[in-house]
């Protein structure tokens, strides 16, 4: 399997997971009707339409005067079925097929619209399964940003459409992305028939919906925790959308493209949509120039023994060094296991949690450089991280390598590689500001993996609220589009029952190592550091012995 195909497969798995979690929330709220269309909506200024009416209006604005009667129509990324249901009510002679990567979404379509003459199918838009030359119209409404490789979708659409068939694309992108997309579509066997800027109507719809959320917010006491959480998610997303549309940093456009008579361009290069400069990472290092108290940073001890391998360890989002309580003792014969306490948690609660990956890396570099300098340049050390802590360990390994002090190994557990994209829906679920402790429990429930007794403890939720919020923001904002390989070995452990980071996702770390990645799987869910500590520590002992064996005397 090529690297590109593997990345597409991994990204598809993550997208499928995200929409499974969304389906859990929608089902819990009995909110299926509100999520039928899953588009941004269209309205006239001052309109007071319902969300459903505005979303259906956007559909017909996108379709425009495209002929549908008697056509074979494919909705690539049909979501919960509203688009094809609306078309079926008006175009009874059309042959309709809806595909979606999420089995939960397709089940919802079949349940709600089972009486309509629509075929619902679980499939990937990057590899459309229909017969070549079988479709008259393909819809791609707000689909492209969910795809790891839009180029694969363009090729699939070109294969499936009849000559003269229509590809209707609508999305909210910046101008660079629209230029890239248009150029690739023209090279992929399409000619542009029309381009309509619908930004004004989409902004008007966002304004109406924001007003409705604010009006409904007055009933917050009567609403469920899930209702309040969902309202907060959507309100935050709408606010960002309103700003982007009002400033024209993003434009909502509808393209109608005609499949010309050229053969499918199989040599079309792999491409991705450009990343908006607005989400570029911010580097803030000046505030972290001074090391903190050693006892606060290393609550279970700092490296002080010249005969054992030092290992700096980082926990999952919201976790503190106590996640590794006792590890420094059980591993004492093999290494110096030194969990690092990040600001804003446990004994470090008086400090504010850090707000970006750049801040995390700058702060940790400041804390451990004195330890590394004291050890000397020849003494090896290793880094360990779980989930978000694993991404911190990777970024720290890059920074230390650039500084001429690379680690001897990077150990990662339950950590997605950086190239796997967070879908826009998952980012919306994570970027909640502010939310109360009840909402935090809902976030954790949606993401999965947190024990029920922890979710049911209000005092515990209140204690970790600020830190969890900040850590979620770090995870949502973190992006690395340059795949930089580490010179040191990378070792991974995945849980076979992990719904957040699957073993297939973990295999993607090979892209980031100059040597073969040593990966293993254990029978566990996502948060397995406590329940499976024996297996994890066994791996650490084995790899530490390999490092110290190569180094001989590690002094």
From TrEMBL:
Domain Thioesterase residue range list: 310-536
Keyword Transferase assigned: yes
Domain Methyltransferase: 73-165
Gene Ontology molecular-function annotations: methyltransferase activity
Source taxon at top rank: Bacteria
Classification via InterPro entries: AB_hydrolase_fold, Methyltransf_25, SAM-dependent_MTases_sf, TEII, Thioesterase
Pfam families, alphabetized: Methyltransf_25, Thioesterase
GO biological process, one term: methylation
Keywords (A to Z) from UniProt: Methyltransferase, Transferase
Annotated family: Belongs to the thioesterase family.
Record protein name field: Methyltransferase domain-containing protein
């Amino acid at each position: 399997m090529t690297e590109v195909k593997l990345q597409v497969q991994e990204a598809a798995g993550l997208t499928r997971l995200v929409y499974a979690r969304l389906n859990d929330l929608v089902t819990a709220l009995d909110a299926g009707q509100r999520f039928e269309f899953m588009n941004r909506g269209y309205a006239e200024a001052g309109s007071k339409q319902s969300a459903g009416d505005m979303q259906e209006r956007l559909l017909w604005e996108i379709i425009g005067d495209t002929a549908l009667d008697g056509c074979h129509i494919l909705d690539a990324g049909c979501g919960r079925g509203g688009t094809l249901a609306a078309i079926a009510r008006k175009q009874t002679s059309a042959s309709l097929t809806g595909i979606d990567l999420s089995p939960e979404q397709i089940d919802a379509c079949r349940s709600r619209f089972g009486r309509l003459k629509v075929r619902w199918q679980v499939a990937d838009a990057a590899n459309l399964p229909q017969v070549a030359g079988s479709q008259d119209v393909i819809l791609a409404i707000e689909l492209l940003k969910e795809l790891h490789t839009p180029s694969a979708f363009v090729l699939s659409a070109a294969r499936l459409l009849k000559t003269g068939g229509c590809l209707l694309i609508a999305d909210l992108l910046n101008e660079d992305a629209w230029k890239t997309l248009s150029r690739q579509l023209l090279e992929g066997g399409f000619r542009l028939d029309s381009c309509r800027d619908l930004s004004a109507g989409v902004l008007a719809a966002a304004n109406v919906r924001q007003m409705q959320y604010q009006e409904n917010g007055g009933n917050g006491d009567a609403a469920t925790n899930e209702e309040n959480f969902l309202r907060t998610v959507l309100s935050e997303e709408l606010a960002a959308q309103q700003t982007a549309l009002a400033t024209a940093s993003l434009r909502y456009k509808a393209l109608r493209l005609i499949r010309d008579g050229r053969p499918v361009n199989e040599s079309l290069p792999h491409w991705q949509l450009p990343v908006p400069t607005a989400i570029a990472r911010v580097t803030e290092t000046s505030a972290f120039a001074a090391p903190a108290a050693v006892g606060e940073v290393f609550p279970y001890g700092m490296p002080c023994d010249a005969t054992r391998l030092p290992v700096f360890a980082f926990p999952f989002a919201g976790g503190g060094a106590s996640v590794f309580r006792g590890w420094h003792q059980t591993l004492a014969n093999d290494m110096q296991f030194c969990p690092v306490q990040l600001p804003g948690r446990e004994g470090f609660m008086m400090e504010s949690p850090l707000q970006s990956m750049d801040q995390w890396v700058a702060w940790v570099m400041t804390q451990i450089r004195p330890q590394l300098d004291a050890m000397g340049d020849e003494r090896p050390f290793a880094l360990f991280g779980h989930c978000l802590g694993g991404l911190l360990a990777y970024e720290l390994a890059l920074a230390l390598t650039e500084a001429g002090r690379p680690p001897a190994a990077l150990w990662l557990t339950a950590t997605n590689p950086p190239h796997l994209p967070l879908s826009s829906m998952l980012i919306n679920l994570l970027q909640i500001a502010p939310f109360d402790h009840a909402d935090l429990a809902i976030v954790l429930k949606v993401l999965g993996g947190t024990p029920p007794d922890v979710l049911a403890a209000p005092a515990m939720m209140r204690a970790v609220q600020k830190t969890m919020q900040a850590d979620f923001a770090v995870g949502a904002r973190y992006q690395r589009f340059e795949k930089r390989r580490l010179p040191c070995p990378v070792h991974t452990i995945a849980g076979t029952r992990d719904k957040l980071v699957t073993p297939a996702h973990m295999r993607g770390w090979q892209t980031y190592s100059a040597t073969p990645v040593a990966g293993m799987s254990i029978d566990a869910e996502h948060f397995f550091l406590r329940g499976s500590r024996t297996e994890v520590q066994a791996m650490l002992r084995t790899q530490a012995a390999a490092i110290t064996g190569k180094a001989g005397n590690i002094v």
